[in-house]
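Regression test attached.
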Amino acid sequence: MEFAEHIKTANVEDVVLRQPLQPPSRGTLCITGHHLLFSDREESDSRQVLLLLRNIDAIEKSVENLTGYSGFFSNASHSERMSGSSGTITMKCKDLRVLQLDIPGMEQCLNIAHSIETLSCLDCVSAMYPFFYRPVDLSLPEQWGLSSPEMHYSQMKELYEKWRLSTVNRDYSVCPSYPPAVIVPKSIDDDTLKKAAKFRQGGRFPVLCYYHKKNGMVIMRSSQPLLGANRKRCKEDELLLQAVIEGSDKGYIIDTRSMQQAQQARMTGGGFESKSFYDRWKRFHRQMERGKALQESLIKLVEACGDESNNMDRWLSKLENSKWLSHVQNALSTAGLLVECVERDGHSVLVHGSEGTDCSLLISTLAQLIMDPCCRTMEGFLGLLEREWIQARHPFQQRCAHSAYSHARLQQESPVFLLLLDCVWQLWRQFPLALGFSEALLLRLATEVYASDYGTFLCNSDQERCALEVKERTHCLFRALLRPTERDYYSNPLYERTELAIWPSVHPQSLQLWKGYFLRWTQQVRHLEEAQEEIRNMVIEWGKLARS
Amino acid sequence: MEFAELIKTPRVDGVVLHRPFMPTVEGTLCLTGHHLILSSRQDNTEELWLLHSNIDSIEKRFVGSLGHITVKCKDLRVIQLEITGMEECLNIASSIEALSTLDLVSLMYPFFYRPMFEVIEDGWNSFLPQNAFKDLESMTDEWRLSEVNKDFSLCPSYPPLVAVPKDFDDETLKKVATFRHGGRFPVLSYYHKKNGMVMMRAGQPLTGTNGRRCKEDEKLINATLRPGKRGYIIDTRAINVAQQAKARGGGFELEANYPQWRRIHKAIERYNVLQESLIKLVEACNDQSHSMDRWLSKLEASNWQTNVKEILTTACLAAQCIDREGASVLVHGTEGTDSTLQVTSLAQIILDPGCRTVKGFQSLVEREWLQAGHPFQQRCAQSAFSNSKPRHEAPVFLLFLDCVWQILRQFPCSFEFNESFLVLLFEHAYASQFGTFLGNSAAERARLCLPEKTVSLWSWVNRPQELERLTNPLYEPNSLVIWPSVAPQSLLLWEGVFLRWNRSSKCLDEAYEEMVHIIEYNKELQTKVNSLRRQLAQLETEDPLLHTP
């Protein structure tokens, strides 16, 4: 497919760009296959704005014929009438920025709008920008990503005794959404795994995701068991879970659905582990919002943040109505429950909801951040994201196809990853010294997950990534973020490692709206950023001084 | 009266104390005339010294013979005492109740407190009106300092010295005073150096139902206008409230009589409404149910944030009139001692970088609140936990501090002081060992001989060791006008006051310390670099060989 087909007008002069926090500027607009490029006409300090078309969530156009109907009766030629008209395109981005272009000439405006509309939501993954992004100072990596399940296993010596690395899924045949290698109890052979996989939705049989060094307890995750209405059971699945709590009196299962939802799931072939077959497992149900409800919550929140009625009551009720903060609270307290089971109560836990690709990942990630100091450094955090979200497969492409502004009908969009970042931000706010990275990293990730130069968040699973050769043909965001210059920028100058678990307060009074993200494009957040920038600069300067 | 009469049991042993974020302490409870003291007599545990005047309300209940007393403080802290023995417990409770509600000012602790520190600069003399006027004189000669109120007879709530237009003699001022509520004739509050515009404040004009007018009043405020320029009158009441005031002899400036002035009405809440808002907010903050929806609805229902927003908006409007429109402004509500002062003082923080320093802010509080006659004693008699019927209580000053905190949060580098300073002022306005916030006006303070008999809060604050704790490490003088955002989305709940005792600030404090440490270390390195550079330069000039490699 050629991008050129979609670009009828590639260049327009004399366009006015309005963006938040900056005065409007006049200049030239270019549309390319992946970008919208605006360059200022001022020669003194020419500014350029380069926007990934992928970042555009929705556009609105209004065309105005300035000469109006008076021109109809005059004998002005067609072209003159057209040149007197102009149009405005409002672009609402996935990073919540809203930009406006005033374009002279109705036809040009319509052409530009059409190109943006088409190019911003191309479905073909291999035509996306990460496959074309070739910065001069960076060659394609030999190793894509920070680690692999194999490397992770080999570094965890304490696992060797009771756990093994299984390659039963090497060709993705047992579970299309798992990576080729997973960690399972040593006593369970691959045949048992294959059978257990048939009993779990999407083949996601229970695998190890976290080993708590302090007491040897683990967090496992999976998808729901396929009990169905007639309460099927699977000996191999029971055996697998039994092996997990070998030598301990019991384990806990945290189901991220309410009891009622889990009951209903049986009608569609799903279900939950019944007490009679898994008698040493105690089950908790914690209802977490997912899918469409979460997306709608985001839409409402962003709408509330953009509300300009200047009315305090209205703002607070809209904020409440969006329920976003309730979701944050819910996620953090469920993660807290998980940590309590592992750290305080000293038992292993299995986490799942239905598919095991959204809420399960959310709370297992948060629990690891709360418990494990290694996950709180910048490498540790990115490594954690890679394991839990990239390798364990969160369907990024489906979930992040659109953000809060899109008019398109909701399909599989859901801001689960954004909710994770918000929860991490709450942790960072409550424990400003404990995390090795700063808010800036969370903001960067929140932007990149929706539109990126890098291939990290492309596709829905490892299998898809291999099929499209993502690992060979794109750059990896996580590796880029760890390059020295970037690392300086994103690290937390106040970081001091603590070995303790960081228990967040989940009182509603303790949780705040993540202004840095949701109100990022309003004036006042700017000043806070400047203050943080100041501290960061100081620390960088120190580093230089210390070295010289 | 002797305090001893009120103290039925001065000492009880074996009392257990629970307070937020501190380990439980068992020790001896002592009641003195002004303090509740609990000490375990061990070196490693902190003693509790609580001023009776800080106690807002107490509750007692019994489980068997074990009495529980819950003490709720005006600084919003809640502590629990467990006392064995019903009689002891009842005695203690009734003593606390009696001692914490003493009305007689001259029995208050500041009259008994002797400083344990060396006073470097006596705070009572730090901010005299004649000194402030010297600064004004250096900028303009259009104003004079009038002594017309030197015996407080003309306006009991004004200080002895006020700044008025130069051409107005005291006789005219006397006539104007009869036309303004409480005798509060228009006086200068702020002079904007950049364009010579001024902000004045006053009480409402006493027009009454038949539209009385006062030529002198009109002349006085017109004298502050430049030829051909219009001014703005900001009335802090909604138009219907101002209309209703006419029935009680008050009113507002009619266009016909003040053709050069444009009147703007802004609805700022006052009195009971504010007190109730505070009570609801504090109740919401202490809500223990874990529901996010409930918290947000309660926060909304308290209306506190709305009040913050309205006050800030009005202050921005006043500042805008002066700085952007180049017009002079007169601010008043009814009495001119509450919402008026919120607006005039916040506008100065927005406009004048001088008010954003530690000293400048103290001077502002002194000028626009203490000397301008905000009735601190009445307004701060009770706080959010009180069970008694509110009389004149209203958290007007606390709202002002909240607004300053909002601006400080939005401009973290533009203030020389930090949040702790604002919290300190809140605490001392409600209960203090210092005399600064005693009394309701300059006249009362003079009558009580406060400067002679009590210590000023500023004497204590303006010492290096205290200042260090209260200064903002990020401060960089900013000579610009700072325009805060007043969008509801931009305003936050002031956690440092309202959630201070509900959630531990340990981690945040550590982070703050760390930041201070980084900044200090940075300064140190900077000086080191500079001295090394100097040495290098010197070596280069001394030793020409260095230039040849």
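Expected vs. actual: identical. Chain A touches chain B through 51 residues (CB under 8 Å).
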